[in-house]
Amino acid sequence: PNPSLLILPGDGIGPEVMTEVRRVVSWFGDKRGLNFDVSEDLVGGAAYDAHGTPLTDATMDKAQAVDAVLLGAVGGTKYDNLDFSVKPERGLLRLRKEMDLFANLRPAQCFDALADFSSLKRDVVAGLDIMIVRELTSGIYFGEPRGIIEEGNERVGINTQRYSESEIERVARSAFELAMKRDKKLCSMEKANVMESGVLWREVVTRVGADYPEVELSHMYADAGAMQLTRWPKQFDVIVTDNLFGDMLSDLAAMLTGSLGMLPSASLGLPMANGRPKALYEPVHGSAPDIAGQGKANPIACILSFAMALRYSFDQGEEAARLERAVEAVLAQGLRTPDLLGEENRAPVTTSEMGDAILAALDAS
Ligand code: NAI
Ligand code: MG
């Protein structure tokens, strides 16, 4: 049977960028014989409008059953005053939680044509291609005890960094598996110098590393890692780190490469019966209500999210690279959606024109 893909376009620019992704998915079926069983459903505000909930149980069941979920974005001003329990974001949170997506993959990839768009010097970022794996379901954002308590005559805010060996082990394993599909280099970041959770993190990652002798493993304190990421990011291939450090380091790494409209992501869980990990792919950006409905959205972040699905869910690394080269080619031709223009005095292309160009580049590949 064909691998299955559930498309959840969502709200705002989500459906606009997903229209272009659907064309790309079809292209791989028509021209490369890579056919997917594609189904489609509502999430976020769109699901709330139709069903009164941001994610129905039926959609949740579908997401659990497919090989990969591809999501656009959720949210919008229209839903700002909804009760917390039915806010669009809850749909996404439910997917992440019930699929137990503990490994968040955030690549920072710099296309040569956009190297001058980075906040760093061209030679520091040109050709950059690294991946940060952030633990997503544990750590200080979830640890107990937490809260604001009275102590003496003042209040104290408390959060707890907490990692079990099994939580560290499973995210470490995902990172090693990824490293095997990339340059076989993994750097683990924590603060073992001042945090017990960091000591355990380092120990467990090292132990898991014994199963991956081909991967060159190194360790770095997370603060030093932040420095190294801005000084010479090309020294890294895959970085694995906890929820809190990963939140900051992945945002930092994202800005090495420029626009939000370019950034894909993946969230992976445990392997299913067929060996593929539970997986949700989505652009890093949100529903961008300020530009929705105007043909201004950059579809590349969502298209590159599908490239990640090809590589990490469907073992189609060559085809993923083909798609990434097509993106590189249209950027090299000078095509820019408005978010990629900055101060440049050039006519922007629309969302669908960007899609047309990427399909043409695929045809030429
Ligand atoms: P946002 O990412 O939607 O937009 C931030 C800025 O970047 C805006 O100026 C927007 O126009 C621009 N931008 C974002 N994606 C773009 C693209 N593909 N092409 C061109 N420009 C792009 O974040 P914001 O404005 O904070 O949130 C808007 C809504 O999206 C809110 O309801 C928020 O809750 C939701 N959101 C949803 C996320 C998700 O579905 N994963 C993630 C972040 C926010
Ligand atoms: Mg963040």
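^ NAI complex. Residues 297 and 351 are 6 Å apart (CA to CA). The chain has a mean pLDDT of 95.
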